[in-house]
Amino acid sequence: MKFKTMLLALFLVSTVSFAQKVKYSKEEIKKMEQYLFNEGFNSPSPKKTSTVTLKDGTTVKGFCGKIDTKKGQIFEVTLKDSITKKTTVLLADNISEMYVFPNGAEKFMKVAKYMGNIRNYQTKKLKNTTTNDRIHFVNQTVSLKNKKDDKEFLMQIINPEFDDIISVYHDPRAKETTGFSVMGSPQLGGGVIKSYYIKKGDKVMWLHKDDFEDNYDFLFGDNAEFMKKFPKSSVEWDYFSFLVYQYTEMSNG
What is the per-residue pLDDT across 26-76, written as a single tens digit (0 to 9) for each? Predict the structure, then answer.
């Protein structure tokens, strides 16, 4: 009986130790809450030259007047030649990758949204919302929300500076966590994007915040040092962009 009691005690101690959380300082948490992904844009600028590369290697340039979508995903791109004014319609299925510039009206709306949430001031960079840089789209085979048949879509990479191992794509239909405001004042809290499409190795999937814990080992579990420093019991979905960045840095040595 005493032996069984001792075994039970050892089991409970080991379980508590295994489940013990890492405590981070306020400065560390503030750093982890920084949003490091690029802003996701859905509308192109018709005044700047876009570049589209087809699967056969052909490059087409022109003003991107329109991007047609179904369920948020691109299925057709319209370019107008700056000299001849000739319009070319390209099916997304035939496009390997493309670079477009964000629409000014959409940037204006995103700035207004940024200014309307106090949380953004400490976690996001306004320059990402007002960027004049090109947006990179790549052709990717994915199942929408992990429910539909696999199909090719043009998806915007939002971590181009650290996509060596995990590529993160903008989800045009993603929702955000809610906050609250008083009498029209800037919103407090909320504003955290709930879903992305991600690729690691050969696997591409839709990742929702509710499934983050279940997929944590798949995303980061092959780096023991990272898992020790950032165990899933100690982190939150709000830290996702930081975690992808940190994991990439630590994996690359």
Answer: 999 999 999 999 999 999 999 999 999 999 999 999 999 889 998 889 999
Q: State the amino acid at position 159 in one-letter form.
A: N
> Largest Cα–Cα distance in the chain?
91
Token pair 């650290």 is at which residue? 162
What is the rounded distance in angstroms from the CA atom of residue 20 to the CA atom of residue 227? 13
pLDDT digits (tens, 9 = 90+) for 96-135: 999 999 999 999 999 998 888 888 888 999 899 889 899 9
The pTM of the full predicted model, rounded to 2 decimals, is 0.88
Collect all residues with Cβ–Cβ distance below 8 Å to 3 and sequence separation of at least 6. none
